[in-house]
Amino acid sequence: MSDNMEDKSKEQLQDRIAFLTKKLEVAEQEKVKSSKKKIWTGKQLFSFFIGKGLKDSLNKLYQELPDKVTKESLADVTANVIWRFTRIGLFAILAALIPYILLYKQNQKIDKQNELFGYQNKKIGIQTELLEADRRSALIFLMSNIMDKLDNELKEDWNNDNIRNISPELIGRISSLSYSFKPYRFLQGDTLISKPLSPERGQLLITLSKSNLDSISLLTLMKNCVFESADLRGVFLGDANLRGVSLNGADLEGAILERADLEGANFTGTNFSSANLEGTNLINSLLILTNFAKARLKNANLTNVQILSADFRGAVLDSVKFKNATISTPDFREADFNGTDFRGANFSNVNLEGINLENANLEGVDLKGNKNKASYFKGAPLRNRKIK
Questions:
Q1: What's the pLDDT at 207?
Q2: Which of 22, 49, 198, 226 is the most buried (most CB within 10 A)?
Q3: Cβ 282 vs Cβ 261: under 8 Å
Q4: Average pLDDT over residues 108-121
Q5: Domains annotated on the chain, with CATH
């Protein structure tokens, strides 16, 4: 029994030795394969960077060393070296450009993303402004009630004096309503207007001007109500009595105000471009940064007005009265002053170069210190006028 166990142990040991030997042989084979693979990879890389032409020229050069080296062999080696370095350089340049190309693509995507964010913010802004416009609907309902009250007081002659006047309480309510109609931006077509305006204030002003109120009640309303930034583009206010009104920042582009009474009004920053103000009364008005570009003011009365940096480019100013007006730094380019009355006007920093002042009345006007080169004074009275 002891012998059997010993034989079995020997067999197990021999099997173990055979297993380990086989495993060692496999490992040696893998090592040889790995070594051959590395050598092959190295040769491939060497061939890629060195090139077959350079390799062959170097082999030829080695065979000719040390005493039989020819010029052709050296030239061949030199040419192949230059060629290989040029290829490697181009490869390096292309490799270096890859990050810049990726960065450019990334910046393109970021720009597109920013554009989308800008579009989204624009839409959010539009929605915000439209929410403000929706809030006005409640005030429009209130305005309707107040206008009904106005109509009732006029019909019932609340003061029993046969005068179309209204109660101080109603004047107070109308004044308070005008303060509530604050300007905002709203859609015109599919875009928001560039400057906040108040269509409701414009509507309120039109309603009051057409109510045929007595002059005292109307003047009180003009003095107490706020019509700043009113939207009055293209409206008809011909023959309207708007004495003392304050239309700072209002937009009256293309509006018709023929023969309107605007005496003592404040038009700071008001836009009258392309408006018709023929025969309009603007006596004692304040015109600061007012835009009259291409407006028609023929026969308008601007006596005693204060003009500061107003824009009259291309305006029609035939027979306009600027008597005793204070005029400082206006823009009169391409304006027509034929027959305009400037008697007693005070000019300061006025550029009259190339201006047509034919038949204009400049009696007593001091133009000294103003730019008058090439101005056309034909027919203009010269008495008491200083030009140089």
A1: 94
A2: 198
A3: no
A4: 75
A5: 127-348 (2.160.20.80)
Of 54-68, 189-203, 302-316, 318-332, least confident by mean pLDDT is 54-68
Task: Output the pLDDT for position 90.
Answer: 60
Query: Which of 336, 333, 378 minimizes the C-alpha distance to 351?
Result: 333
Ranges 1-15, 73-87, 217-231, most confident: 217-231
User: How far apart, in whole angstroms, are the C-alpha atoms of residue 309 and residue 293?
Assistant: 12
What does each C-alpha distance from 233 to 91, 251, 296 come to in angstroms?
67, 6, 15
Please tell me what DSSP assigns to residue 354: T
Task: Assess contact for 348 and 368: CB atoms under 8 A.
Answer: no
Question: pLDDT-based confidence at 321, cuts 50/70/90?
Answer: very high
Half-sphere exposure in the Cβ direction for 194 (13 Å, CA): 2
pLDDT above 60 for 62 = no
The per-residue DSSP string of 215-257 comes to HHHHHHHHHHS--TTBB-TT-B-TT-B-TT-B-TT-B-TT-B-
| pLDDT, mean of residues 294-302 | 97
Average pLDDT over residues 101-118: 78
Single pTM value for the model = 0.65
Q: Residue 177: which of 207, 155, 157, 154 has the closest Cα?
A: 207
CA 237 to chain centre: 32
Q: Which helix (H) or strand (E) holds 308?
A: strand 306-308
Token digits for 95? 């490799």
What distance in Å separates the CA atoms of residue 356 and residue 333, rounded to the nearest whole number?
Answer: 10
C-alpha distances in Å from residue 353, one per residue of 194, 320, 335, 372? 33, 19, 11, 5
Cα angle at 334 between 332 and 339, to 5 degrees? 75
86 exposure class (CB count in 10 Å sphere: 0-12, 13-18, 19+): exposed
> What is d(CA 3, CA 114) in angstroms, rounded to the nearest whole number?
90
SS3 at position 368: coil
Residue 357 has pLDDT above 70, yes or no: yes
Distance CA 131, CA 135 (A): 6
